[in-house]
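Bench notes, afternoon.
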Amino acid sequence: MDLKGRNFLTLKDYTPEEIGYLLDLAAELKDKKKKGIPVDIHRGKNVALIFEKTSTRTRCSFEVAAHDLGMGTTYLDPVSSQIGKKESIADTARVLGRIYEGIEYRGYGQEIVEELARHAGVPVWNGLTNEYHPTQMLADLLTIREHFGHLKGIRLVYMGDARYNMGNSLMIACSKMGLDFVACAPEKYFPAEELVKQCREYAAVSGATITLTDDVMAGTKGADVVYTDVWVSMGEPDEVWEERIHDLTPYRVTSAVMKNAGEKAIFLHCLPSFHDLKTKIGKEMGERFGISEMEVTDEVFEAPYSKVFDEAENRMHTIKAVMAATLGV
């Protein structure tokens, strides 16, 4: 399958067959990594990594994946780039496209990465925007496939705020690849109706189902995968913490939720996670609201059925597959 020259901005742009190909390639590259087999097929190329939102997993994954492929990287942090400040997005894209073979963007509105892609002339990869997180989706799908041996028919329940990049992207990924998707949240935290409608169209083809519910026990009953994310995203004001903690505490992933899902269920989280008070924000929220855990309990996070670190590792292997494929395997 030839994906050379393609951008990777949202899984809406990719067919199930193309997504499956990227997962197969990621599995192959992961196997070679474990065996110490070099894959430096893009030696001499260079990629730019634009991070308007900082990150641990995304940055490390892109840098290691690029280096494994033989490429050099330039990391542009929130204060190192003039994108949108002294230089327009279009001009930035045209400059970087003359210097680099590929550009990664992690930041705010989807319109930014879309505009970069229109003007760069080289593949542009979405490392995260407010609306979508496609590289995370490949890591999630690979992790699920590794654990269960298949994707079709898997029931994935996303608990918490399903209105933004994670809820949106999981619904897209599941509906395209034949997984049954459940958003389990208060109604005001459901995904946008327009996207739900679009995903129901994907699901009609793949055989998937899409369910929106505010009932925790009904929503998680028989789930294969229980998934959650932090309740307040990077860049959101501090004042939303009180509202989210009030609204979403009933949707915390607990041992009771996992027991309701069933013995075969696994827990996933895109990280970072506030499962204890060992972070600055976790400690502040604990002191402010008298809580020791937020979106998931420490008991669940540390349980054998928690596959969050397999999932985190798979960020690198799947990102490597995306770069390898779009630059030409």
